[in-house]
Design goal:
This protein is mostly helical and 80 residues long. 31% of the residues lie in helices and 0% in strands. The chain has three helices and no strands. The termini are far apart.
């Protein structure tokens, strides 16, 4: 079996979501949206090396950059 890199360095979230292997962590967005204006708005993400911390922060950055002019987040901010 050949070696496979599941967390390649230097790739941003928008590239990774179209890759063959991607672990969806978008539920974190719903958790953060519930905490935004509360006293629990700060989170600490502690994971070992190469466990997707940068990919997760890139995902959050891509999500929150998609705000419209009213300051509302895009349509995925409400759980179905």
């Amino acid at each position: 079996m050949s070696n496979r890199v599941f967390n390649p360095g230097g790739m941003n979230y928008l590239e990774i979501i179209n890759d063959k292997y991607y672990i969806d962590k978008t539920d974190l967005i719903f958790e953060l949206n519930e905490r935004v204006n509360t006293s629990r708005k700060y989170i600490c993400v502690t994971r070992p090396r190469r466990f997707g911390k940068t990919v997760t922060t890139n995902m959050l950055s891509a999500y929150y950059k998609c705000n419209n002019s009213n300051g509302e987040t895009n349509k995925t901010d409400k759980k179905k």
